[in-house]
Amino acid sequence: MLWNLIAPLIVLSVALYGLFRRVDIFSAMITGAKEGISVSARILPALVPLLGAITMLRSSGGLGALSSLCAPAFDLLGIPPECAPLIIIRPFSGSGALAMGAGLMAAYGPDSLIGRTTAVMLGSTETTFYAVSVICGAAGIGKTRYIIPAALLGDLAGYITAAAAVRWLF
Predict the structure, then answer these.
(1) pLDDT in tens, 79-102
(2) Residue 3, number of CB atoms within 10 A of its CB
(3) CA torsion angle for 33, 35, 36, 39 (degrees, to 10)?
(4) What phi and psi, each to the nearest 5 degrees, are found at residue 75?
(5) Could you write out the three-class secondary structure of the chain?
(6) Residue 121: predicted pLDDT
């Protein structure tokens, strides 16, 4: 019951805080919406090709081939090879990774090693290319020389740690 009230209480507290500080809440909301639209317009050129490339990779069967190539390396790192498609798609697409994770859990069960590893991986990593394109696009950063490799190494550390934690805890 309390959980159903959290969002309305947050909205009410923000509104009361704005009234207390004598802020025109409606104008502030309109200004934020205008800024959101301009940010969307700036990042859209980066997102369209990214989403198109993901769709082509999945539709062409390239994802399956790439998963087969990477599976032995993931096995050496202690990551279940069945999680390879999830690991490949996660940096590009959150919804694609979620669908991939749901498929893995349906195939192997949510309480299996693969199901639990999948769940922890989904919760401990980020859609790297999407996040970088949104953040850098919003901030006006054109050169992402070190951002992508560092973020992908962080994702790899997250995948390895997720697999190790699931093996250790379960």
Answers:
(1) 999 999 899 889 988 878 888 899
(2) 6
(3) 160
(4) -60, -40
(5) CHHHHHHHHHHHHHHHHHHHCCCCHHHHHHHHHHHHHHHHHHHHHHHHHHHHHHHHHHHHCHHHHHHHHHHHHHHHCCCCHHHHHHHHHCCCCHHHHHHHHHHHHHHHCCCCHHHHHHHHHHHHCCCHHHHHHHHHHHHCCCCCCCHHHHHHHHHHHHHHHHHHHHHHHC
(6) 95
